[in-house]
Amino acid sequence: MTEEDIDRAWWKEAVVYQIYPRSFNDTDGDGIGDLPGIVEKVDYLDELGVDVVWLNPVYESPDADNGYDIADYRSIDPQYGDMEVWETLLAELHDRDMRLIMDLVVNHTSDEHEWFLRSREREEPYDDYYYWADGVPPSSGSDAGTGDAAGDPPNNWSSFFEETAWTYDEERGQYYLHLFDRKQPDLNWRNPDVREEVYDMMTWWLEKGIDGFRMDVINLISKTEGLPDGDPDAGMTGDEHFVSGPEFQSYLDEMVDRTVGNYDVMTVGEMVGVDAEEAREYVGESGLSMLIHFEHMGVDTGDGGKWDVTDLDLLELKEVVTDWQEQLADDGWNCLYLSNHDQPRAVSRFGDDGDYRRESAKMLATFLFTLQGTPFVFQGQEIGMTNAAFESPDDIRDVEAANFVDRALDSDEFDSYEEVRPLIESRSRDNARTPMQWTDGENAGFTEGEPWIHVNENRDEVNVDAARADDESVWHYYRELIDRREERDVFVYGDYELLLPDHPDVFAYRRTLEDDALLVACNFSGEEQAVGLPEPAGGVERVIGNYPESGELPGDAVLRPYEARVWGY
Ligand code: TEU
Fold first, then answer.
1. Cα separation of 349 and 351, whole Å?
2. Catalytic one among 162, 181, 197, 270?
3. 270 catalytic residue (yes or no)
4. Cα torsion 75, 159, 273, 412: sign
5. Which pLDDT belongs to residue 149?
6. Cβ(429) to ligand 1 under 6 A?
7. Rounded Cα gap, residues 196 and 456, in angstroms
8. Average pLDDT over residues 446-469
9. What residues have CB less than 8 Å from 525, skipping those under 6 apart?
10. Residue 135 near residue 151 (C-beta atoms within 8 A)
11. Mode of pairing for the β-strands spanning 374-378 and 16-19
């Protein structure tokens, strides 16, 4: 890559900060974060130096899945504020040259959305807005969709959150499809009216001046015609019929063409089960800006999926990351993330949230900011927030985790919550959703009321106030990384080349852009690691690192526990 070949875009050079509004900052004391709370923190975001805010759903919702079950796409849920305060937020961000991208959740709606209520009544034109199908109804008195006496649903597909993807609706006398919770019925994208509704709604938001969308599970919108049974031996039954389904590409093209393609916006598609090669079909020229994939989220799980917890396999992480870096090097772009509202805290997962919390949080930050792509920072990551304790099932808030605990306790595998607890504490989505820790005060300064989910007990040590007052904190390190990345094109646009491919503990690579280059070495272990990195003839300079300079050159550097070093030449 040469300077001349660079295909610049504002969203490639940006750093994204993800806000989970429910857990960010509460101003009215109801224990739930709100939009005025975000407005209050706009200067905080500006000082950190981020460029784009991605806001998780704030639309009207019964909150079966914390806003991912939308009842009205064009309104703000009163618990978060109203449209006026949302407009204020947009204006305040724009005033500081920051942008706002909104969550677009159109694979499904809430079962309380007007479309669903009318569809259930077979009212035209809504009759066909969802996937309705016949099956054997559950015997009366049993709980539809939970196995045994649950009747016989139209096919064998499973749901991400429940055993079966079908729930019987008494009123309509048919089953409806839901790939997530039963309160999240899937929209029927085969129906052109549904697609028109979605495009109108997207345009309505775009006209308000937003800067893009993050598109929730966008590659699930197409389902095989006739909804045939799936292979029962597949990882998730039915996925060959709904993951990147037959019409997905054409729906996506149509959507881009009709909506986002006409604006200078950033589009981030969340796609399950997509590898880097397939990703090339959806990003780049005339597609989406980038996509959120899950491949690197699987490097510490076994074949049994997310609850099948294993140690981190760094060699697998290298393979996955390198594949994505290479496949999208010339056309397309990477979305870089280690944390979000669906994942445990990165420092607990890939680092050491005990003795080396600070070092490993900074090492992971270095890793995130020195790959090619747009880094996404999830609220709290910039102060090294960790996973939390969930002492009893009553502490659990997330529908996915709650369902998992129920299933686990029903099975023969687990006898008590104590046995399931380590899995919850290492993988539950609630780990990411505990309140943002602003201060060491009560409820970490998040709320003056009773928080909807408990505050992590390490708030005394890990909080924004403390981090800002300490020059050596994770927070200041993020700031510095953001500055460094802005100074040199090589951070954003440089080519990626993996070094030390077989080193089991050190992830090292080179980034080059014409005559500028970076050498990056990240120690993912709590032990010292010797690395023999190539040494350029002209010598190197230190660019950034999470330990004091050691003076060693790349060729004979010994990395300290969780040390990250970046040299330039
Ligand atoms: O997540 C999609 C998704 O695949 C997740 O369900 C993922 O499998 C799970 O969270 C891993 O634990 C998106 C949203 O990010 C998530 O919050 C929603 O619950 C989900 O879609 C349904 O809208």
1. 6
2. 270
3. yes
4. positive
5. 62
6. yes
7. 44
8. 98
9. 505, 506, 561, 562
10. yes
11. parallel
Name the one residue in this structure whose structure tokens are 């990165």: 346
d(CA 419, CA 408): 10
Spatial separation of the C-alpha atoms in residues 565 and 370, rounded to whole Å = 11
Segments of 72-222 assigned E as strands: 72-76, 99-104, 132-133, 166-169, 174-177, 212-215
pLDDT tens per residue, range 506-533 = 999 999 999 999 999 999 999 999 999 9
Q: Whose CA is nearest to atom 5 of ligand 1?
A: 342
Looking at residue 235, its pLDDT comes to 84
Helix H or strand E segment including 321: helix 314-327
Q: Which residue in 216, 352, 353, 430 is the catalytic one?
A: 216
Give residue 147's pLDDT band: very low, low, confident or very high (50, 70, 90).
Answer: very low
Q: Give the C-alpha separation, 459 to 509, whole Å.
A: 35
Instruction: Report the pLDDT value the prediction gives residue 139, as an integer from 0 to 100.
Output: 83
430 lines ligand 1 (CB under 6 A): no
**501-507: long-range contacts, CB 8 A cutoff, minimum separation 24:** 501/318, 502/315, 503/529, 503/531, 504/314, 504/315, 505/314, 505/529, 506/531, 506/559, 507/314, 507/317, 507/318, 507/321, 507/367
pLDDT of residue 285: 87
List, for residues 345-383, the tens digit of each pLDDT value.
999 999 999 999 999 999 999 999 999 999 999 999 999
Residue 9 CA to ligand 1 center (angstroms) comes to 28
37 CA → ligand 1 middle, Å: 25
